[in-house]
Specification:
Blueprint lengths: L16 H4 L33 H12 L3 H10 L10 E6 L2 E7 L4 E6 L6 H15 L4 E6 H6 L1 H15 L11 H10 L2
Parallel strand pairs: 3-4
Antiparallel strand pairs: 1-2, 2-3
């Protein structure tokens, strides 16, 4: 027992999280560098056909580490369910693009655009990008970095409105087995 700190030492080394048996980190976080804790490639179970290249995954990680001021400000409002309890992720690969922020529950993508996006070529590239993302069933909201820096509440209000519009009504429990056949028999005359 270490008298100075009141802790007990386990030996010459401490055990790793894997040895202790802690639950594995979420996909994309922690041990695996693109692989789950069990060594299996990470695949979105709802979209198993979404194959993300190692290069695109590495680019997304780099973008998370090197966020712009506007991205950091907006992320501070969106992270951890802070915006009406809705969960967002940031710098998520979709197709050959990396979405700035994404809410899977509302199928909503938020893009922040700097000055380079306002040229003719930038606008054409943004239109192609939005079309590819929308083809996956997402709605794309675009804001300028200046909007986020000067009108944060307006941006958040627009996001909340878009989420409310896209929110699905709660689903009723599905009838199973015998319940379905009984319901069908009741409908037939």
């Amino acid at each position: 027992m270490d008298l100075m700190r009141g802790t007990r030492r386990l030996g010459a080394y401490s055990l790793s999280a894997r040895q202790v048996g802690l639950p594995p980190p979420l996909a994309g976080e922690g041990w695996g560098e693109g692989f789950s804790a069990m060594g299996l490639p990470m695949v979105d179970p709802q979209h198993p056909d979404w194959k993300i290249s190692d290069k695109l995954r590495a680019n997304a990680r780099a973008l998370r580490r090197n966020s712009t001021d506007a991205e950091r400000i907006l992320w501070s409002e969106l992270r951890a369910g802070r915006l009406n309890g809705v969960n967002f992720r940031r710098q998520v690969p979709i197709e050959n693009y990396i979405a700035d922020f994404i809410c899977h529950a509302a199928k909503l993508v938020i893009e922040l655009d700097g000055g380079q996006h306002f040229s003719d070529e930038g606008e054409r590239a943004d239109a192609r990008r939005s079309a590819a993302i929308e083809a996956k069933g997402f709605k794309v909201l675009r804001f300028s970095n200046l909007d986020v820096l000067t009108n944060r509440s307006g941006v958040l209000e627009t996001i909340v409105t878009a989420i409310a519009e896209r929110a699905l009504s709660p689903t009723l429990p599905r009838k199973r087995g015998r319940e379905q056949t009984v319901a069908l028999e009741k409908k037939q005359p």
